[in-house]
Amino acid sequence: MNAAARPAPGNAADADAAAATETSHGLLTADGLDFRYGALPVFTEVSLSIRRREIVALLGGSGCGKSTLLRVLAGLESPSAGQVRFLDQPLERPHPRSALIFQHASLLPWLRVEANAAFGLDFRHQPAIAAGVRQSRVREALAAVGLAGREHAWPAELSGGQAQRVALARALAREPELLFADEPFSALDAITRAEMQNLLVDVVHRWHAAVLLVTHDIDEAILVADRILLMGGRPGGILAEWTVDVPRPREDHPGAVTALRLEILAALRDTFTQATAGVD
Amino acid sequence: MPPRLRFLLPLGGLAAALALWWLGAALLARSIPIASHFAPLGALRALAGLLGEALLWEHVAVSLKRVAVGLAFAIAIGVPLGVLTGISALFAQATGPLFQFLRMVSPLSWMPIAVMVLGIGDAPVYFLLAFAAVWPILLNTAAGVAQLDRNWLLLAKSLSATRFETITRVILPGITAHILTGVRLAIGIIWIILVPAEMLGVDAGLGYFILDTRDRLAYAELMAAVVLVGALGFLLDHAARWLHRRWLHGR
Ligand SMILES: Nc1ncnc2c1ncn2[C@@H]1O[C@H](COP(=O)(O)OP(=O)(O)O)[C@@H](O)[C@H]1O
Ligand SMILES: [Mg+2]
Q: Which ipTM did the prediction report?
C-alpha cells in the first residue's frame, strides 16, 4: 500500500539519488512559494515540507491564504514563484497519489454512494486498476468510514456528516500518500466534528497516508496534528511551528493540550501586536 | 383549493370556450353562411369520423416523425453548442449577439432559402424545426453549465480529469435537468412551427392536411384538424413534463 517513489526508469544512480533526497526532505517539499491574484500578493516566501505519514495542520485566521496555499501545494494552482516537489518530482498538476477533501462533500447527486466513492478511479490520468480491485478498495474505504451497508444509498439520503464520510472514502479509495483537507469539518456540528476528527486520524494511520489539514480551529489542530504550522501576516507566510508531543487520544491529556493551546494563543497575540504596530 | 374544484375548473374553462366557439360561429354564419360549418358540433362529429380513418393517422405519424427528427437535430446541435457557450467565455462572447440575432428571426423566414438549398420534401421541414428548437436547448444548456456546482469542477480538476471526462462525467449529468427543460420548451416550439412548415412543399402531415381540407371546402374537417393539433400538442407537452419530473425524482 505504501508504495515508494517511482523515479524515471532506466537510471539507477538517479533513482538512488532521488530516494536519498526524498528521505531527507520528505514526501512533499515547497521552496520559496509566492502566489498573487493579479497584483494582490496572497503569500510570499513559503517553504515547508511534509514527511510520510505525518499529519500537519496549517492553522490561521480566515482570509490569510490557507486555502490558496493548499491549492498550490496540491497542484490545482501554479505558484507565481517557487517550486513544489511531490514524491521528488516537480508538481505540475494534481498528483494521482494525492487526494483532496473540502468543506463541502461535493458528492455527485446522480451517483449512488458506492459510485461516488469510486468516482475518478477510472480516469485516464489515474493509475489503471482492475475493476475487481477497484470495487474491493471502494468497499474497504466505505467500511472504514462506517458506511458499510449504505453503498446503494443516494447522496440526498445522507446527513452532512455521512456525506463527508463518503468524501473521505472517495479520497481513501485512491490510496493516497498525501491527503489535502481544507476545513473539512467546519460545516458540521460540534459532536459530529469531534467524531470525524478521530475518524480522520484513525483512517489515515491505517492507510499510512500523510495529511495537510487546513483549519482555523486551534483545538482541531491540537487534537489532530503531529505538527502545527501557523500562517498569518500580509502577505501571508508561515510564522511559527509546533510539534505536538501529546500521546493519543489527546482528550486524555488535558494539561498538555491546554499548555500548547495557550502557547499558540500567545503567539497569535504577538503576531497581532506586531501587525498593528506596523500599521502605526 | 379543494381537489374537486381543481378538476372542475379546467372543465369549466373548456366548456366556456366551447360556448364561445359555438356563439362565434353562429354570429359569423349570419353574414357568411358557409361559416356554419365551423361550428363545434359539426367539427367534433367530423373529428370522430376522421379518427376512424387510417389516412388521418398516416398524417399524424408523418408529423410526429418530423417532430422527432427535428428535435434530434436540435439536441445534437444545441447541447454541444450550449456546453461550449457555458465553459468558454471566448465562445460565449463571440457568439452572443449572433445567437440573439438568429433567435429573433422567425424560422419560417428561412423557408424559401431552405427549399432552394435542400430541395422539396422533408429536409427543409427538418431544417426549420431544428432551427426553431435549437435556441431553448442551447440557452438552457448554457445556463445549466453556468449554475453548475463549482466544487464538482474542482473535484474533477483534483482528479486530473481530461476535458472529455469533465464534460461526460460531471457537466452533462450535472445539467440534465436543464437540458430536459430546454427539450420541453423545444417540443412546444416545434409543434407550433410544424403546421406552417408543413404547408409548403410537402404532401403529408397535419399542416398539409389542413390546407387539403380547405381546398376540398371541408370546413368541419378543418376545424377538426385544429382541435386535433391542439390535443396532440397538449399530450406531447404533458409527456415531456412527465419525463422531466421523473428524472428529477429518480435521484
Ligand atoms: N479567486 C480569487 N481572486 C482574487 N482574490 C482571491 C481569490 N480567492 C481568494 N482570494 C483572496 O486571497 C486571500 C486568501 O484567500 P484564502 O486562501 O481563501 O484564505 P483562507 O483559506 O485562509 O481563508 C483572501 O484575501 C481572498 O480575498
Ligand atoms: Mg479557506
A: 0.84
